[in-house]
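Following up on my earlier thread - several people asked me to post the actual chain instead of describing it. Fair enough. Here it is, all 111 residues.
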Amino acid sequence: MRWRVAATCLLLIAFAALFACGEATDQPEDCRPGEYFDEANELCSACPAVPDPDCRPGCGFFIEDDERGCPVAQCAEECLCESGQFFSDDTLGCESCEEASDPPGICQEQE
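Reply from S.P.:
Thanks for posting it. Predicted structure:
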């Protein structure tokens, strides 16, 4: 008789635990530094490692956060110009070395 009572209690506890505990979910405010909130799974996930960007030799890069809040590396603006171009501080864009009246050193290095 005692084992039936114990088995019944154990079964009731198991059912109560099953219904009381739903799926584990997080809220965006639960995420720690280095994590982002994955809306599809409703869980905090670790940000991926930051790979080095594929910049031209001698070009620098900077780290900024993406839309998830995870760090990403990007080439510096002056490194995004094509060969035969340079980054102009005047226009804040790429300019042709051929059209420059006083071409910077980067243009002579590309020749």
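Strands lie at 35-38, 43-46, 61-65, 71-75, 85-88, 93-96. That should answer part of your original question.
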